[in-house]
């Protein structure tokens, strides 16, 4: 993977960035009209093609809204029809047959037909510009053919419980084959909205697609406004210049939105696991007893209370509660400094150990470092801290693996399988875990969840990393808006159910 693509992956990892809050200026929010929706977000897209760029801000604004897939995730995480009105799977799990909807067209006017679907799948597999994440998700496909204009047959090389789920994301986007050259700046999708204007780094304006095949979009325009400083974002919400803050990144500032007549605060879960990453290539950290000692030494509840105002969830492994194989492993390593010291001594580090903690300059990471340094000092681990700007972190930690410990939020859906890749920056190599992940994907459907639960439990038992807490999804909106999803299950900020009570 190139450094540029590594850096893009980094931006996906850190797209939930946290900053400090500001005071209430007392301004009364202006009620939104049915024709315009204004959404505040923190990370701006640097391109508009999510198949060739891993930045989470792209599918946040465009997936399901501008670009569509054969199937999509609903607010409960269930796979539903989208461009495919129905599908069937062969008894051996190898052949998927999709029947496309009638009347769906791209904004170019071309029909969304079987040929376009096949071309989109083959592009993901063959175009070198497509990200490695998307290629990996499509690698199991051995053939995609157009049986007729409305029927697509996809054949897998082996059964895969995860492939259809992956098709709900960027890898599954159906594109107009005649308009691929300029997708980074000129999206051609089939969704309820089109891209009207893009002012890079500042705003992205979507407009209602008048030729959309489904229910008409609720708003004439939707504007995503990007704020690198959430103080400014909060001020804009308080002044009535925004209708939604899509992801509150300073929970300690929520009290300024406590007036229910002016704001609604929607709290749920996300996919953002904050991980104390441990470089398993380090000689000391390759010993499970050292990793377990670190886990026992950190009071995660007190850490979350201190850094994130108690908002979030303790999880114990790389699985949020919206994943079907979630199990509560939060008590796997209760705070126990005495046991931590014993494990360190058994591993041969009774006289002490020195480790480097290299973190990106992101508030949840820098906010956590002081707490962690103090608690590890109490068990005999000296921590040398190095704060890096995100670009340097991407190079030295994520790409080069030049670190002992780090702190980062991983926001991708169902990303536990990353631990099965020993080349990933954690350098965690456990053949039993790798086998469980592979077996789960290929297993009969009734074995999928139990096998994934085994894998998650093994990851916890082996203390592959310390899973500090799960970032919450916190949205602030004007009270006249309905249909805002509670949980952040997909990378998309799906606009399809959002409407105004006054509209």
Report on the structure:
- The protein is of the alpha+beta class and 503 residues long.
- It has a domain of 204 residues: Roll (Dipeptide-binding Protein, domain 3).
- Helix content is 26%, strand content 22%.
- It contains 13 helices and 18 strands.
- The strands form 5 sheets. An 8-stranded mixed sheet has the order 8-9-10-1-11-16-12-15. A 4-stranded antiparallel sheet has the order 4-5-7-6, covered by helices on one side. It has a two-stranded antiparallel ribbon with strand order 2-3.
- A hairpin with a 3-residue loop joins strand 8 and strand 9.
- The longest helix is centred in the last third of the chain and has 17 residues.
- The chain is globular.
- The N and C termini lie far apart (47 Å).
- The N terminus is likely disordered.
């Amino acid at each position: 993977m190139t450094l540029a693509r590594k850096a893009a992956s980094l931006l996906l990892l850190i797209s939930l960035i946290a900053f400090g809050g500001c005071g209430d200026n007392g301004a009364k929010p202006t009620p939104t009209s049915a024709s315009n929706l204004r959404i505040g977000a923190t990370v701006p897209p640097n391109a508009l093609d999510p198949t060739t760029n891993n930045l989470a801000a792209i599918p946040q604004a465009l997936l399901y809204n501008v670009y569509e897939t054969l199937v999509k995730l609903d607010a409960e995480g269930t796979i539903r029809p989208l461009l495919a009105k129905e599908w069937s799977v062969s008894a051996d799990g190898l052949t998927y047959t999709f029947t496309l909807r009638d009347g769906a067209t791209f904004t170019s006017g071309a029909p969304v037909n079987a040929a376009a679907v096949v071309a989109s799948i083959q592009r993901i597999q063959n175009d070198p510009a497509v990200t490695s994440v998307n290629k990996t998700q499509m690698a199991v496909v051995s053939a995609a053919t157009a049986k007729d204009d409305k029927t697509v047959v996809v054949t897998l090389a082996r059964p895969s419980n995860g492939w259809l789920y992956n098709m709900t994301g960027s890898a599954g986007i159906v594109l107009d084959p005649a308009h691929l050259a300029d997708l980074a700046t000129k999206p051609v999708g089939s969704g309820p909205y089109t891209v009207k204007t893009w002012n890079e780094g500042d705003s992205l304006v979507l407009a209602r697609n008048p030729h959309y095949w489904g229910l008409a979009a609720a708003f004439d325009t939707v504007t995503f406004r990007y704020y690198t400083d959430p103080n400014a974002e909060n001020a804009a919400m308080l002044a009535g210049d925004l209708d939604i803050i899509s992801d509150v990144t300073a929970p300690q500032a929520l009290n300024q939105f406590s007036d229910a007549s002016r704001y609604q605060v929607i709290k749920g879960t996300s996919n953002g696991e904050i991980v104390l990453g441990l470089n398993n290539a380090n000689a000391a950290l390759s010993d499970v007893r050292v990793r377990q000692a670190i886990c026992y030494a950190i009071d995660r509840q007190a850490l979350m209370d201190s850094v994130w105002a108690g908002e979030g969830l303790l999880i114990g492994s790389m699985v949020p509660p919206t994943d079907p194989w979630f199990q509560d492993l939060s008590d796997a390593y209760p705070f126990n400094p005495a046991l931590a010291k014993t494990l360190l001594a058994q591993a041969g580090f009774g006289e002490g150990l020195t480790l480097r903690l290299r973190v990106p300059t992101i508030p949840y990471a820098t906010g956590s470092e002081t707490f962690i340094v103090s608690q590890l000092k109490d068990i005999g681990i000296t921590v040398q801290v190095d704060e890096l700007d995100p670009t340097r972190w991407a190079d030295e930690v994520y790409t080069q693996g030049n670190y002992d410990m780090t702190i980062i939020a991983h926001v991708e859906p169902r990303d536990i399988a990353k631990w099965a890749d020993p080349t990933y920056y954690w350098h965690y190599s456990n053949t039993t875990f790798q086998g469980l992940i592979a077996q789960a994907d290929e297993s009969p459907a009734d074995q999928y969840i139990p096998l994934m639960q085994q894998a998650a439990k093994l990851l916890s038992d082996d203390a592959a990393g310390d899973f500090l807490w799960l970032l919450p999804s916190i949205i602030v909106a004007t009270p006249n808006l309905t249909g805002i999803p509670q949980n952040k299950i997909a990378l998309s900020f799906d606009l399809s159910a959002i409407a105004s009570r006054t509209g």
